[in-house]
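Table S2 (continued). Query chain:
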Amino acid sequence: MAAVMAILVSGCAKTDIGMPREDSVTALHAAGKIINTPENAQKGNLLICLDRAPEDCGTAIDSVLSVLGATSMEPVFPCTDATAEIDRKYGFDRWFKVCLPEDTDLEAAALSLAGVSHVDKVEYNTLMRKASDCRSWQYTQPVMTRAGMPVTGFNDPMLTSQWHYSNSGDLGMAPTARRGADINAPDAWRLTTGNKDVIVAVLDEGVQFDHPDLAANMWTNPAELAGTDGYDDDGDAYIDDIYGYNFIDGGPVTWDLYGDSGHGTHVAGTIAAVNNNRTGVCGIAGGDGSGNGVRIMTCQIMSGLNAAPIDVSAEAVRYALLKHAHIIQCSWGWTAGYILSDNNFESRAGALTTAIKAFVSEPNDILDGGLAIFASGNDGAGQAGYPAAYRECIAVNAIACDNLPAYYTNYGPGTNISAPGGEYYTGNSTTESGCVLSTMPTVSLQILDENGRPTGMMSATDYGYMQGTSMACPHVSGVAALGLSYAKELGVTFTREEFTSMLLTSVNDIDGFLYGSKYGGGTQFSLAPYKGNMGTGTIDAWRLLMQIAGIPCVTAEIGKGQRLDISEYFGSGAENLTYTDVEISDADMEALGLEEKPEMRYGKLWVYPTKYGSARIKVSAIAGGTSAGTGSSLGGMPVTREISVIARNVKSENGGWL
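Corresponding output:
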């Protein structure tokens, strides 16, 4: 089987494996090595994992490959001298793809391969799907007026239509739109808008890297900047991977083939469309127009009519690790219920699990491991789909502009947090403005249904609306990237667990709204099943930045003067302390709509906010006594605590903040 084994190249040692002893492995044992089912598997190939490095295997597989008529056996992860250390560290060098005739009985072939002594796992190459219906609606750009300019000072003309960043509750958007159903981006942008050293790998359809509103924030591979010269300049087995790589077709990134939908370009824009460039939309971490936005790496795992199989998805995750991405953004996965537990997903770890575990374990300059962020899925099911539900991943649910679950979102076990995903049918009304607005390819594409048939609908061009947990997921990825940017600017680092805990607790309440029913997706449905099942709440960018800075948050009601209890931050004797000063910037006064400066009254912070917003306030006091000690007199020690006040509308009947 020399022709087969000759494919084992790309820097990996060739393997010379021979006939297994027929009595060495029972049929039951062999079947136990098969880690998934052939449902929705790619035809003509299987994945295998060896139980040791290839060069240590001896001889055990040639005859089986010959009987099966295998045409090749090649590494799932192309390993070279440049990648050998990482490949050995995480076991990437043990995974191989066995290519077979298209009409091969995969179940019989899997059992034959599992019978080989040094084959540890056999995996069907299951296909993934996008967590969106891939429909898009065109955005018609309005004439920008001074009154419509956002308070951030950004001059992007479509920002005021991105309700998912700052929701005014405009009923023209949807009859049930609710103020505050957003990620609280404008306040966060007063602290940071991104950092060019933070990298988000978008595993999706290809991202249009020359899009006018994305080009300046695209990651570029410094070793390949000579351009498309046909050489693998950095020795990683990928030729001309300038902005990333097309893993499914094995070449340059594409985004406009028949069957593409603009999904990857739309996701990328939510994370890092260029801000303040007088063009289009804003990205959550897109910078301030000075070149400081986070960078988007395009890792293409879907192309035209080709869906993402396991091996391609796993290879893309490994690439993100090799190129030092901080986050992998993944708006795809399996149908909820296809995999039911982490043990099912991990105990017989597949190629994708191997790659995800490696990515979240490999340290970077801010965390001791990467962040894997996935869409929970659009099945409307009471559990997340995998890989989102896997404990090493962050699973994102979707809300609509009414701050309620979108009709399509998954919820319940395996889900972690919620974010705006949009909804075309909200409040017994159909409107694209209730969906998520972002970048789209600059050419129109024929949209296909889930069976690959033309729908008769063409995609939006340049900018458009889409809906799905696919759209919610990049909101969390964007907020996480903004948080990592702020951490980098402050010079602080965290463990992955610490940062994940901060991210998942930087939320606003949703459970207080989950009573009665809502009209969405063309039907009336009860909200009761979602209560306690939408993760920790809805993501809030300001709250994350406050946690990173170590500043506690308290919530105030809009439209009334009130005294806020801050004794938690000044001790149980806070009421009797001598307070010497309360400091707040003009920008923060404006953010809360304060007409009077906050002050301490009877040990509590008095404020009267008139606007929905967030601000930082410094409170100074004397620890011990009524005055600070000096060289000539005894006294206490001055102490200062910075506190964040977040103003929301009045409390709802169930205690949630509107």
